[in-house]
Amino acid sequence: MEQKDDKGARNNVLRSLVQYLSAINEEKFVPGKTWIKYAGRVFDNEEYTSLMDAVLDGWITAGRFAEEFEFQLSRYLGLYSSSLVNSGSSANLIALSSLTSPALGENRLKKGEEVITVAAGFPTTVNPIIQNGLIPVFLDVQEGTYNINPELIEDAISDKTRAIMVAHTLGNPFDLDSIMKIARDHNLYLIEDNCDALGSEYGEKKTGTFGHISTLSFYPAHHITMGEGGAVNTNDPVLERIIRSFRDWGRDCYCEPGASNTCGMRFTQKFGDLPLGYDHKFVYSHIGYNLKITDLQAAIGVAQLKKIGQFVEKRRHNFAYLYKRLKEFDYVFGLPVALKKSNPSWFSFPLTLREDAPFGRNAIVSFLEEKKIMTRPIFAGNLIRHPAYLGIEKRIGSELSVTDKIMNNSFFIGVYPGISDQMLDYVGDKFEEFLRGYK
Ligand SMILES: Cc1ncc(COP(=O)(O)O)c(C=O)c1O
Fold it and tell me: How far is the CA of 183 from the centre of ligand 1 (A)?
């Protein structure tokens, strides 16, 4: 790749940028005035310097930073390959679409076949199933873990069931022992939506490394960010090639942007009904998309990824700190539950009002919001009750009573690394203040 090589001038620009950034005062926490957000980006000089470095390259489409990010991310996960895309939703779309590829022969997913999933979650975990003409089979989740209930899966499997696509909800790993066994026994694909769970562990391994494909989101609410972004991860070189084809217009060629004839057979091959030697750069083997990112986004990601260890540690610290404080209120709130073998890298701190609580969810979340403590529902609550999903072709594989309970009684608050102990003390105090009114 061509780079401008006036190193001295470049270093001057980067030094000026750091001087400018150092002159900006950090916002101090003022209880009751400063928002305690449910999530947010945590940047220092490094993200801006890396971004400016990419700007000065003048190379806007995916380039050296994207390559570096993909390499470092796959190394972090311990997987063969990570492919950058422009969002977690795009990552999920590509993950599911990839399993429909003719390159998988008889093992490809076909229209009308079924994919097991849940309705308690984020819409774009489920949407790719529908968008690919497959049928979602909705199962209930467990109280406390907010994850698919593995005990319901075997009974819900039909002769059309081909895959399981579910998220590690809010960073909390689902029961990978049970689900991997079911997937193996019934020859099902597993897609792990790991968008909220970068850094979570189950046993000796990170989540996002168990299934055939996993996905990540780099939207600012997530563990690391590049503004918008996502990744599709796999240990399978055949799937990697398919994933990149779907990402890059559906093309058969796998040259990096700006490169040509990587395979050395650009003008000598025969594809479909095309004439022999048709330029391989313009041969299409999938009905694809363009879901690539820019190198500017990747440059921010490269700086963020270096900090993933400390970010995960801080999330775990914040979660444990808050848990200790809110434990005394468990007579009214169901607290989050993690499986014994797991070590979550929490996205947030979920709470569910007990049935006999003397107040409704809106009372507590309105109070918290008024006190500048941001809250969110557990995403869609029960997805299939939303207008867009009322008429879709679907199968309800079990009662969805816990899903409905989450829709009615659950919410989450933040544990992201931008939250300090002082802020968490304030959060605990406000819960106490609210509950005093009901003693
Ligand atoms: C579990 C899950 N999957 C997918 C997504 C979509 O990610 P993005 O916003 O990057 O499209 C989200 C978004 O928060 C999510 O929580």
Answer: 24
